[in-house]
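yo

u said u wanted the structure for the complex thing, so here. seqs first:
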Amino acid sequence: MNLTTSPKTTPWTASRWILLAGVLLLGLVYLLPLWKITLDAPQYPEGLGMYIRINTVEGVEANNLNQINNLNHYIGMKPIHPDTIPELNIMPWVVLGLIVSGLFVVWCWKRTALMAWLTIFTLVAIVGLVDFYKWEYDYGHNLDMDNAIIKIPDMNYQPPLFGSKQLLNFKAHSYPATGGIVIFLSFGLVVTALVLEIRRDKTKSSPGEAS
Amino acid sequence: MKFLKNRKVWMSIVSLVGLSVLMVACPATKEGVGTNDAAAKTYVPPGEHDEFYAFMSGGFSGQMTVYGLPSGRKFRTIPVFSVHPENGWGFSEETKPMLNTSYGFVPWDDAHHPELSMTDGVPDGRYIFINANNTPRVARLDLSLFETVEILEIPNSAGNHGSPFVTENTEYIIASTRFSIPIPEADVPISSYKENFKGTLSFIKLDAEAEEMSVDFQILVPGYNYDLAHAGKGPSHDWAFFTTYNTEEATTLLEVNASRNDKDFIAAVNWAKAAEAVRAGKAKEMPAKYFRNYMDHDTRIAHSEEKTSVRVLNPADVPGLIYFLPTPKSPHGVDVDPTGEYIIGNGKLATVLPVHSFRKMLKAIENKAFETVINGIPVLKYDEVLAGEVQDPGLGPLHTEFDNKGFAYTSAFITSEIVKWNVATREVVDRIPTYYSIGHLMIPGGDSKQPWGKYVVALNKITKDRYLPTGPELCQAGQLIDISGDKMKLLLDFPLDGEPHYAQGIPASLIKDKSVRIFELEKNNHPHAIKSEKQARVERNGKEVHIYLSSIRSHFTPDNIEGVKVGDTVYWHLTNLEQDWDVPHGFAVKGANNAELLVMPGETRTLKWQPQRPDVYPFYCTDFCSALHQEMQGYVRVSPADSDVPITFNGR
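structre next:
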């Protein structure tokens, strides 16, 4: 990268285009669900599941969340009300911040900025997953044992972060949904952009001046 | 051994031997089924769906039943004209009005002919109609709900048998009166029949947008018995055909007295012309008292409205409205082939099956080839309208259905068989026995422009030895017969509810994806609905107590109620808060003098209860809803009339 030329004249290398694509791709998470938890049981041939979106949790089918909450009352699990999960209010702004700062990195096109931004992106992703795990842990462990109808000592109902797990009569499957895959793709593109830049630096004496 | 020389003795021996051969041979023909082959053809593996829905009339059960073909498995009874304690139909406050008539609440009827709504002459899977014979009515069932949503009483009718048959685009649902009666209703000597008695042909309009049936007009016809009907199609689109018998106009011992004439008539009615005449103001408004009942969409509460008049058209005022086609002999069913050209009169006492030609009929009308004129209705010459006769169609031919390869299938009651014949050549090509005494028969789409000619179902009146005996009262039954090849093959026997008359079949794919799973609680506009447990409550209003009750797995809210008194009328308004597929909740309270409630997810239903003596009454859920269904219960305390126990519920 050229540290002397102004951003306006910085050349549009392939890596810069890839970064732009990666940043813009993130915008899709406002439209697509990030994660999907499905519950399989013999009585639900039509399927039962929920999507975790950037700003809410909703049923795969209109009434699924309602159905899941109703089933969960048997084991004393708290009902899932998206309104009570503060992260769902914060997440859209965090991602917006990522996108805006990402666009800034594309504009200024400095490797340090790119590396810093990738670090933030990585941290956001990790914090997001840890937070998701914490919520799953909380729902699965902090049960209202006084009012639970089905009580099994030492049993918890925490769904997996990634993978499948048998919870009584339900098999819970937890996997990234389209929005989650988009994040991985975006992340991959950003890494690719960085790798290309590093390679170019190695082959050229004065990176950024090339092309 | 002199007696061996006696000719009579020899004859007896020969006939005895002959008889025993027959007796041995009979079971062989009865089981003349490649059983493996038949089993494979009717086997629908567990969890798989049938290819066709079959809607069977319940006859004297007053209901309609839903079966799958080719398996013959029964799915449901849909209550129509009879009360149905199983789900509270006719017992819950919401459904009681559906059974209102000008004679008051009628809890039973006799339902004969289901008929699917059609678009372009092909069943479209939107609605199915069925008639009430005894207290004349036509019901409309919505096939997304499999529920009766409208019932229209028919005035000036008695024995609503020739009903309900729909025109190609469901423009009209047609109905004829079996009994002729004094019109308007009057106290007259029965012996004044010829002078005072008339028949009517009714044309019911369906306003699909307003979801409302109305009697658009009736045509006044001579005092015969009107038996069955079918609308034309294709070239005969504008016409409808009705069979008549008792053209002798007898009032007593009809089995003899109405069987004297060689020929009775098929009445061909130009309904398009009739509708035009009505629009031109040629019909007379006549006072009449009849009811229309309908289920409101948003509240799911049935309402009754009383109608006070009906438009009646006199054929004498509209030339060209009706023609009589002479038809031997006391014809029962009248069936129009898929092309709309051939009109088959199933003369139940005739030895031949007449096939009339629509084209020839039009020509005969044009040429005025009239035999005579009765009450302004020309009788066309038999030979001028006849395309040909089917010879040896079996004894007692009743009904004919069609496949999509140019063949017709006629049921013969007396010889207990189905006779297959070529519509164009009138040649009999195959016959198969039925066990026993077939009435109607049904091919999916078999009375439409587009039959799905894979199976015919024989609807038999008598079963005798076909099933394990169940005392003197035996089931009536259907028999599934493969008609995909040249030869008909019996595949399956299956019992039916009540007495099956007509039936309808339709590919499952035209209906199943539209089937409603739940009622959306958000859209429940029942005035006594509650949307959450927080709204559950008990309110006293004078001597009325309204209990706003909710159900969700596995409890009622409230479930401890006090303050009800003897002499109160209690309304249990139960809202099922579930929004999950196939989770109804039931409700029953001890000593209730009606029935239970079965409440679908998101729906509200009300049970009226008048407790007779002080006690604590249990109530509970009657539908096994969950593992803790047995815990789904409550108590209501009933105190003496003069007590001062206040209304409380769960300590509130």
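The radius of gyration of chain B is 28 Å. Chain B touches chain A at residues 518, 552-553, 578-581, 628 (CB under 8 Å).
cya
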